[in-house]
Amino acid sequence: MKSTLHISRNSIDKCIEKILINEQIDGSVIGPSVYSMNCFSPIYEHVNKNNLPIIVPKFPLIYSNIDKLKFPTSGQRFLVFGGGSLIDFVKVCAKRDKISLTVLLSSISNDGFSSNFSSLKANETSYNQSYPSKAPQSVYACLPLLTKHMPHKFWVSALGELLSKLNVLEDLKVDNKVKEFDQTPFSNIEPFINKYTKRNESSLIEIIKQLYSFSLLMKTDSSWCSRSEHEFEKLYADSKLSHGQLVLMGALVAMKIRCIYKLPDLYERLLYYCRKLEISLELKQGFDTILELNTYKRMKKLSSVRPERFGLWNLVDSTTVDWKIIIKEIIKELELS
Fold it and tell me: How much of the chain is helix, strand and coil, in % rounded to 5?
């Protein structure tokens, strides 16, 4: 069943009241970090007033911990309020316990909120892996909540997630197993970026809709939305950088290598879009950190992270690349942009 997206201009108070009534919510799962957000108070008040149970996971949201979150009764519907990691974790538990979910987005940092798959670490030290999960029946985006309370880093992450799909499209084109596919979500990206002016309600709505459209592509796995740029993200998932920032950095790396190896690339266009969206500084800082911490050697592993997911790193052996030089060149070109 396809998730239904609801975009609301109602106040946080009115939005949560509508969700509890229309969705017939039996309880809620709240991310620990949202307690520090001012927007949480009206949500808590409504849930508490209706005597609904509140579950707050206080353990790492990794696959080996899924037995620590169990729903009381199958067939119930729970509201999930939190970020991408919480949503992914709860979706896996919901599939196991036959629970229906309604999601209230606290941020728009990735594109997996409506998919049938979840990206989680198997344990504390592993890469993120895809696990079958249960897509929420409804997803709510409360515009006043996201406009007022979503930190800038999640806005950057959302833009990064969206732009990185240009790299996914290039990988899909060279995957012989992919015959024909709907390119509509991909073709909508550049027109939006070209008319983008600033963070406002209009651009927020468009980003939500586009990320939602990509989420719906993931019917059997995440291969339509995750290719060579995500291999980079997996190698640096232990950093403090957001998911979207990492996948866009991965897309820049992939496009740079395509450019060097004279493969079809959008490297210069990607640099231009980063400048237009005013996110070049955040990307440069991310690459600077890789150089400062001397972790650029990790990129030698790009071809071995996920070879079964065909993409650039099946065509180019990452162990043969001088990554220090590549990162320095990208930093210089981001400065110029």
Answer: 55, 10, 35
Q: Which amino acid appears at position 20 of this protein? A: L
E strand or H helix at 152: helix 152-174
| 268-277: long-range pairs with CB below 8 Å, 24+ | 269/166, 270/163, 270/166, 271/333, 271/334, 271/337, 272/337, 273/163, 273/190, 273/193, 274/163, 274/248, 274/334, 274/337, 275/337, 276/193, 276/194, 276/196, 277/159, 277/163, 277/193, 277/196
C-beta neighbour count of 178 within 10 angstroms: 13
Radius of gyration of the chain (CA): 20
pTM: 0.92
**Quick check: 244 and 274 in contact, CB under 8 A?**
no
Copy the structure tokens of residue 51: 């005597």
**Cβ neighbours around 293 below 10 Å, total:** 10
pLDDT tens string 147-198:
988 989 999 999 999 999 999 999 999 999 998 888 999 999 999 999 999 9
Residue with the two structure tokens 């190896």: 261
Q: Exposed e or buried b for every residue in 227-264, given b needs 16+ CB within 10 A?
A: bbbbbbbbbbbebebbbbbbbbbbbbbbbbbbeeeeee
CA atoms within 13 A on the CB side of 225: 29
Q: Which two tokens stand for residue 263?
A: 């493969």
What residues have CB less than 8 Å from 84, skipping those under 6 apart? 107, 109, 110, 112, 113, 243
Compute the half-sphere exposure of residue 58: CA atoms within 13 Å on the CB side of its CA. Answer: 4
pLDDT tens digits, one per residue of 44-79: 888 888 888 889 899 999 999 999 998 888 789 999
Residue labelled with tokens 């065509």: 315
